[in-house]
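Methods: example folding runs. The two proteins below were folded one after another, and each record is reproduced exactly as written to the output file, sequence line first and structure-token line second.
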Amino acid sequence: MVMTSRQASEVVKSILTFLRTVRVSAQPAVTTSEEYFEEAGVVWANDIFQAEFYGLDLPATKEIELAVRKLEEVSLDASILAELGDKAEISVSQLCAFLSENRESSEWFIFYLNGRNGVWAVRAFWFVGSGGWFVFARSVAGPNGWGQGRRVVSQV
């Protein structure tokens, strides 16, 4: 069978490969703080993360399954967000529950979270030398890409 140029242009290569789901239990309403994130294993957060996510009043959330996907090529946030669509964002409390349940993981994770000033990309990795998570928030509008092999956590 020979594809027409129209059919060929409709073939879209995915930049994300589904790896697994992770169940996150229901979370109570809470006001975030440095201590709140420390309970999840966070030992260091950049200034942007602190400004956007400390002191937030979070509503309770229901139990949910999150998807972990592998980034197949270097990609900008815009490309990842376009592929995930309305499944991209998770709540801050779901991030904390995920981090708490995945302590000592060797994977580098990317999350999309709604902060004080819109949606932010958040990277988290377990730093063995410090025995905890390092988290970095950055603008999704920036020109920086994410490396191949990183794990993107989103709604299923």
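Second run, written to the same file directly after the first:
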Amino acid sequence: MVKKLILIGASTGGPGRLHTILEQLPHDLNAAVVIAQHMAPHFISSFVKQLSFSTSFEVKEVVDGMKISPSCVYICSGECQLIEQRGSIVFVHREPSDVVYSPDVNTLFSSAAELSKTIEKMGIILTGIGDDGARGSKAVFDAGGACMFESEASATVYGMPRCAIELVPQGKVGSMEQIVEAIRRFGGIHV
């Protein structure tokens, strides 16, 4: 079973940031990466293909019941939640309902916070408009996970990171380079 989860939430300006992060991580990262990038569902499959071509990771679009494996990248659409089932972490995927954002970062992060404490979690909020991810980051932090937020100087739009910092002032704030370094350390890769 996966022992480390890296959760990333992003909106405006996020796709470029995600390419930058994933291009700099080794394929044998000792963690699974789950991404909620605000994007219309019909663009998700082409985004998955773009990331697959530009990174060394296996990149998958989330489907209901999919099991998580280490060293893979998962792209959410709609509402994605994580649950533990028969010794595995599994996605529960639903079409968006009454959430404002799709995919919803708060839903993803909050579900991860409820997973077993033996699973290490790191929540990252990148550039974006609005406040999605703030409540989810608080849930991850309160469950013992690490949180990191893109700095105002680095972010294209500082809304999402700012709101997350307001709710989780104990989280780390950093540039893209610092975020990549933190992910590498979390994933067991020496920098």
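Comment on the second run: The radius of gyration is 15 Å.
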